[in-house]
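Why do we bother with a discrete structure alphabet at all? Because it lets us treat a fold like text: something you can write down, compare, and reason about line by line. To make this less abstract, here is a complete entry for S-adenosyl-L-methionine-dependent methyltransferase. Read it the way you would read a sentence in a foreign language you are learning: slowly, and without expecting to understand everything at once.
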Amino acid sequence: MATTETQTLLTRLTALSQQVPEDLAEPTIGTEALLAGLAALRQQVPEDDALRRQLSHALSQALVAVERPLETVHRISFAPLQLTMTKVAIDLNLFEILVAKDEPMSLAELTQATGADPVLIARILRYLAAFHLLAETGVDRFQATAVTQTLTVPGFAAGIKHHFEVQLPAWGALPAFLAATHYQNPCDRERTAFQQAHQTDQTVFAWFMGGSAPPRLFEEFSRWMSAQRVGQPIWLDVFPLERLLPSATAPTTTTTTTTTTTAPTTAPASASPSPLPPLFVDVGGGVGHQCVELLQRLPHWHGRVVLEDLAPVVAQARPHAGFERRAHDFWTPQPVVGAGVYYLRNVLHDYPDEQCVRLLGLQRAAMGPRSLVLVDEIVCPARGAGPAVVDMDITLMACLAAQERTLAHWTRLFRAAGLALVEVVPYVMEGGHSVMVLERLVEGAGEGEEI
Ligand SMILES: C[S@@+](CC[C@H](N)C(=O)[O-])C[C@H]1O[C@@H](n2cnc3c(N)ncnc32)[C@H](O)[C@@H]1O
């Protein structure tokens, strides 16, 4: 679809959202042209990602605008059923069967392939077709589409299972939980809707790892964690590495110690002129995706890269000779002292403010005069946050008493930990993913300030 046609479609959709005429056939709205534009869009989605996002936003607004009130109530009420029925289809291997065949299949063939009751399978297929998860090419004939294909990707299928089995019960428990707390913002990780839903007193990660949850649930969660950003840019695609790791081309020696350090008391600008030690520490780095990405971008670098996480996670780290694996509990003092960069991705949004300040304080204590902390997280816009951000925010609330944060909130939180936010580098506009660059504040500054 040409850019000018896409722009015209956008204009028409926006006009529709602003004022839906009583009679959609009214010439002012140009319904026929709008429908033709939508048909063309189905054939070819614009390559330009910014334009695609604008269209997606305009379409969802237009959809709500054209709904009758009863349709709105219906859409909201039945939304959880899509997750339920997608899970059923995955359990039946339906998507994989259709994708493997690569041509329309009859109801009889699908009944035989799944071993399910023919009446039941017909009802399931009818549901999936109604929500465009597959194509209904004729009476009792079904074919895989690009969406069907997406749902066969192992990490995405794991995501559906994870949300159904772990998150959905917690979302369901949230209204009663909030009412019982008289609508206080949750800030105790051991008392959330998650604990109520899963009848445990463990936190999510403890429950997953060696707790009472079946091991399958943690495996699915891990697979989903690895898959959920596939195809999106990462921070290293936009971040000027040479700025962070000036020794990237000139190897130097570094110190690693298991004791806490006496941290400098001055701000970086007035600190020691010695070169930044070539160390990158990925704190709570999971199985080491970011360490691998960094090393791939710096193939000739001799600096050390350290992955830190809990012992069972580090044990599953990705095979790569270039980085060290260190079993480390991040609630204890940071053992790698004076690193160039302490990097935390998707860690802080799992914790309430007080714990974030504590965790950052432990990194600060290990920082050398020119060390940086990089926080790779969502920065929630002060206005107009999109579905991806708010879905995650409420899920964090329900499961971890945690949250996504605005820039103002992050800034206050960093200051309370004795760190100054010096730069924000966004790298995925849609989800607000950004890297925030932090330096040490002079000793005492910010401490005790309200978050
Ligand atoms: C949401 S995951 C983020 C993983 C990784 N940074 C990423 O972006 O893919 C949070 C990570 O924190 C780790 N973690 C949780 N508690 C920890 C602790 N006490 N010490 C070290 N790591 C911990 C988890 O094992 C997990 O790998």
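What the structure line is telling us, in plain words: Residues 205, 225, 284-286, 289, 309-310, 313, 329-331, 345-347, 350 surround S-adenosylmethionine (CB under 6 Å). The domain at 235-245+276-440 is CATH 3.40.50.150 (Rossmann fold).
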